[in-house]
Amino acid sequence: MKVAVLDIKGKDTGRKADLSKDVFGIEPNEHAIYLDVKQYLAHQRQGNHKAKERAEIVGSTRKIKKQKGTGTARAGSIKSPIFRGGGRIFGPRPKDYTQKLNKNVKRLARKSALTLKSKEKAITVVEDFNFEAPKTKDFKAFLSSLGIENKKSLIVLGDSNKNVYLSSRNLERSEVLTSSELSTYKIVNAGSVVLTESALEGIESNLKK
User: Fold this and answer.
1) Distance (Å, whole) CA 175 – CA 169
2) Angle, to 10 degrees, between the axis of helix 103-119 and the axis of helix 30-43?
3) 52-107 confidence digits (pLDDT tens)
4) Is the domain of 139 the same as that of 197?
5) pTM of the model
């Protein structure tokens, strides 16, 4: 599929970019997308939640009152879960939330996500660009020229670019990353995907393997 290549001002350069059918025109597999997004979100969890149980509480081991004659229930330790400051029963423990996913499934998921965005006509190709200095104003002007200033946008570069990244950092609804950092979740989560020409080459070379 051919799409027009735009410049940084949103004007047609007269050149066309060919979106490979092997990446942008496959039969989408929504279950693969689900599995990849599920894995990505699970990997965002630190899993360091922890509550102290009674064996981990620092406190006296003295029996706090005599066994009989008080008219109340028996109690042998101030660290008991029934007392304030005592241990917690079945409290949360550190857990590893990472999930394993076959690399072929991950590749299929990314291609499926890109195919769906292509069908929605939510993919724009621009020529490689740079800013002289990090300025949010320049990046907002770039988004406005593409007509996506009010959308959640994903800008994919071929290589890391500090000026472009810093220019976008203050914008909540826009994110910049490189083609090697592209994930299924980032694609699905974006309303509009903007690819530079070098990023397009990198994505196709990575996903055609």
Assistant:
1) 7
2) 110
3) 999 999 988 899 999 999 999 999 999 999 999 999 999 999 999 999 999 999 99
4) yes
5) 0.84
DSSP-derived pairing of the beta strands 123-126 and 2-6: parallel
- The percent helix, strand, coil of the chain (3-state, each to 5) is 35, 15, 50
Q: What are phi and psi of 183, to 5 degrees?
A: -130, 160
Instruction: Look at residue 209 and tell me whether its pLDDT is greater than 80.
Output: no
Number of structural domains the chain divides into? 2
Q: How far apart are CA 179 and CA 8, in angstroms?
A: 19
79 and 133 in a single domain? The answer is no
Rounded to a whole number of angstroms, the CA Rg of the chain reads: 27
Neighbours of 30 (CB within 10 A): 11
Last residue of a domain, one of 68, 96, 124: 96
Cα angle 19-21-26, degrees, rounded to a multiple of 5:
125
For residue 28, pLDDT over 80 is answered with yes
70 and 17 in a common domain? no
2-6 and 12-18 strand pairing: antiparallel
Residues 78/60, Cβ–Cβ less than 8 Å? yes
pLDDT digits (tens, 9 = 90+) for 116-138: 999 999 999 999 999 999 999 99
